[in-house]
UniProtKB/TrEMBL annotation, chains A, B:
Enzyme Commission number: 3.5.3.15
Keyword Nuclease (UniProt): no
Family matches, as Gene3D superfamilies: L-arginine/glycine Amidinotransferase, Chain A, Protein-arginine deiminase, central domain
GO cellular component, one term: cytoplasm
Coiled-coil intervals: none
Domain Protein-arginine deiminase (PAD) central: 119-272
Protein name: Protein-arginine deiminase
Amino acid sequence: MRRFFPTKTLNNCHSSSQETHQEYEDIIVVDQPMQISLNNLAPSDQAIVSFKTRGEIEVYSSTNQLITSLNPVPVREIPEITLLARTFSDRILDRCLQITFQDDACCQLSQVLIKLTCVRICLDVDADRDGVIEEDHPHKGDWQWGINGHGAVLLVNNDRGLNYSDEQQKQEDQSIQRLLALKDLSFMSVRRVGLKKLPAECQLCLSVDQDIAKRIRIYDQLEQRGDQLIGSGKATAQLKDTDRDIILAIEGLSYPDFDFDGMVEITLSLVKQGEILYSDRVIFRVAPWIMTPNTLAPITVFVSRLSNGKNEQFIDELRKVVGKANAQIDPVPFEFHQDDPWMRDEIEIGYTQAPGHFIHVILDSPRDRGLDHFAQRQLIGTDFGYVVRKSRYCATKLDSFGNLEVSPPVTVNGINYPFGRLIFGGTRPEIIHQPRRMLKVVRDFLYAQKIQAPLEIFSDWLSVGHIDEFMTFVPASTSKGFKLLLASTDKSYELLKQLRDQGQAQILLRQGKQLNDQPADISVADVLNNQELTSQNQRFQEYINWNREVLKQELGLDEEDIIDIPALFQDDGDGRAETFFPNMVNLIVLNQHLAIPKPFGPKIKDQCQFEAYVKRVLEPLGKECHFIDDWEPYFRGGGEIHCGTNTRRQPFTQKWWEIEPNFL
Amino acid sequence: MRRFFPTKTLNNCHSSSQETHQEYEDIIVVDQPMQISLNNLAPSDQAIVSFKTRGEIEVYSSTNQLITSLNPVPVREIPEITLLARTFSDRILDRCLQITFQDDACCQLSQVLIKLTCVRICLDVDADRDGVIEEDHPHKGDWQWGINGHGAVLLVNNDRGLNYSDEQQKQEDQSIQRLLALKDLSFMSVRRVGLKKLPAECQLCLSVDQDIAKRIRIYDQLEQRGDQLIGSGKATAQLKDTDRDIILAIEGLSYPDFDFDGMVEITLSLVKQGEILYSDRVIFRVAPWIMTPNTLAPITVFVSRLSNGKNEQFIDELRKVVGKANAQIDPVPFEFHQDDPWMRDEIEIGYTQAPGHFIHVILDSPRDRGLDHFAQRQLIGTDFGYVVRKSRYCATKLDSFGNLEVSPPVTVNGINYPFGRLIFGGTRPEIIHQPRRMLKVVRDFLYAQKIQAPLEIFSDWLSVGHIDEFMTFVPASTSKGFKLLLASTDKSYELLKQLRDQGQAQILLRQGKQLNDQPADISVADVLNNQELTSQNQRFQEYINWNREVLKQELGLDEEDIIDIPALFQDDGDGRAETFFPNMVNLIVLNQHLAIPKPFGPKIKDQCQFEAYVKRVLEPLGKECHFIDDWEPYFRGGGEIHCGTNTRRQPFTQKWWEIEPNFL
């Protein structure tokens, strides 16, 4: 509600009698009531008042009664009136309220003429999330989760962070490339104000908070050169005069983070001489970055093609599995990885979406090794977005994204996580000397996305420190929809002891393989008799068990949801674990096909007993196990298939804004 | 299924023995089987064959059995094999099939080496209509109506038909205006082929039919200057080599019409030396132009602001009704109408939509009078689309869009028309001398939109020839959702006779008004006693009755769905009807508010008896009747409020592609 203050009289003429005539000019906003205190205008509180209007304007009494009668009323009975106009003026001062004051004898005492121009202030967005801007959605200034929720969505623009050269930028400006790079912008509409030129001293201003001005850019269709209206710290802009709707394009620059909840409020104000007469406002939520669990179908598997054909055979084998899964394999050339084989660690491929928009988005880890160029390769196209978190602190191995996973959708104690939960590895300082933890900038980013409520577990006991060295998720047609696979040293010892008990103590693990230019083969007996190795593995098993309990609790799992996968670790000399034979749990899931590191376990009749065990537990779930030799290109470098690949997956079919997260 | 023809041998060397070695190179397409006839390759039908593969390729027997065994088989048992590859090559000739023929004695007779490069040919669209392009939607080459249907949608670009000046065009190119003008394009994706450079002599070609090449434009993101890839008659284009997905933007130029069913098929082909090796194809349907019935909420009412204040009072009165209906009124300045008051007749405001896209679209009639400039005014903005139909034949009054209406949604004999039915007026040559009919170009356009199954009725009996002179639809909370209002001369006579019977024969119609500089008032008695007028009105009533029956039948209406509105006509001297007093049925509907021409009927106690009757029949339906004096600016020119206004309305909430039209 705005008040009319008769501060400035345009005309104030006394006629020959005592009668005065006052004229005012003001602005009224469509559908916004304006209060007028008659006490301030009346020549005396004994006066009798009558009204006359011109143009589309209604007068209401203090009790909200429409005043239609022209019969004079005592001012004391109607100390205040409210004006309401519903249609914008197409001409200046096309409305008028004439207030006449009389005395008891019907002699006119004074007359006040209030001339009004009615302006519409309306900023619109796609609040109902169908991709189309509505007309003045009742909840456009509010944001609610859920299928029946409302509130507009903003994408972080997909190629920010990529530094074009000036030449590229110039070319881009001249081409339709620019259009396509901008095709995932959101739009707003400033509805036609009414007048082409606002009354003198009036402006239409768009504004955001100073902090938000660094996190978005707004473009005005009327700006000839595509200059931004708001952004780069510029928080307020005056809109040009026009007699039609103005379309504004808006792009997000920042994902939600510890200092940004993702909510972007934009205000359209009618300003007169610095005073805000009326404001309309809309709210966007910046779409979060979402990770895709192993239960979603793969589209593309990325792998570094190492020089000298080092992993050529591996790629060939993996390609066959990828083909069976109806996905594509995309071997990345040397220039983008510089022989860095750890495709998993440099990036995580998630996605972001808004109504009618979808893009895969690469989260670039603070680990900047050879594959740091890979994101650049993908980003040149329009089908990948990009986000990176850098820190002034040094990254550790725990900042690699082999240390970041996402569970399939889970329900935990009645709380539904329809997009699963992010899981990353950290430390337990009471156990670990010189503990490491994922950098705060990365953790903050993960928590700020909200939709996949993160969970920190314990991976610092591993030399490489990645959770994918002891856990993964495999889809299963159980009520939960998946099984958690955990590396198990106990399970290895159990299998090895069975072999010894069957008189097979002399068969070899790691047969025919080399480590440090030495034959790597070792007998079942030698493994079992190695007390130091046994006690190390007991210790590592305890760490896995600790994680097992945390995962059971935080993902709502039972023992039957977990499958133990044989693994052995050994101390790296620094108290941390490194794998003893290729670590099968570090597999990749491609629909029902699993590409599993070939463990080179003890063989009976040419059948590896570790492989046999894994098939025995996974094939009943409908899985096809493909064991691939990754010894040379990956295992010897401290990782396996999962570490050496990255998978772009289909998104969730459910839209993130349609859920009602009760965990927020 | 493609066949391998060993037409060209790369290597054909005879060794010292009879043994031959042949090498071929070919292309195979991802997921597309390739047949190889062994009979053609075998040195004899007695030979025994064995296979060896390199790279991701599978060999199937004629009976679709995967050939995994390396054991040799007699050729006569396996005369044909099929190859299948599922992953694209990232290197030329990375697959190989080696076929070895032996004799019974296991002596090698010959060997054939087929080296293959596997290429992906995949063109994608938004076939599931969520605004996002999917990966290889199974029904992308097909189009089905319905909420569970599929098939992509293409909008006709919104500002085609508007002729920018060169200077404007230039400015536009440099500005974000271009982006916004193009924001309603649809997109396609050519999926990554695999190789950056295709094998020699191979090309990737996009093509459409020659006719379609005039109806769409396709832009390639890789074209630096935004040149069109396909369009302006260019039906085929070679795509540039790239190692990533290519986004193509497509815009429609033509709405469906008599010679265009709106279906746009686009083919992506792998071509080698002019031969098409494989094609993928997608289908779009061009979105139809849709009209909005009176049951949809108004947004903006357009009216010409005539010079010399001729309709100033009228606009003021109408503005109040528009305000009550929460809509806006937009008086159009002189430069856009040149004092042409007939806003209804020059244009019809409909809309078009695609998933995530919506634009109001002006259909410009072949009537090109002063208001022809109006469309231009609206089109400068991005929120109006435009379509016009011109003919080499002269337009008649029947081509004005006062002669085009749309019913609310109806069900007729079990057939559901969820978007209503278009209705336009035509002639009955057996009755009418020098008959007129709406131009074929306009009728063809209307029928071709399909979604609102048009219906032609009889309006040529009217001098102006518009159906809005005798019919309109008013929303009502009945099971049908509306009432049909029909002008009724019988009803007028009935009311006038009642007045005479009540002794009121001398009260006046058209009191205080002028026609041809003469007082227009005429008594009830004089009207009733005018035999000629009576017989004319009987004739005109028969024409209305004829239409009444057609409308009842074609819209599935009962008598209770129809309300008679008093009207009188008189012969224009040429046998056609012109109104005798302001024609109330020519009203505009603004939610529950009706802006009705003030009929200047006979008054009793200051109450017009025609108005009283209309209120009596419409107020029980929840309608508020606002009678507005349109005598001078409109009635005297041969029209009324409906003729003098145009209303932009909210679209249907249902999407047109979600219906399953059983009337098509």
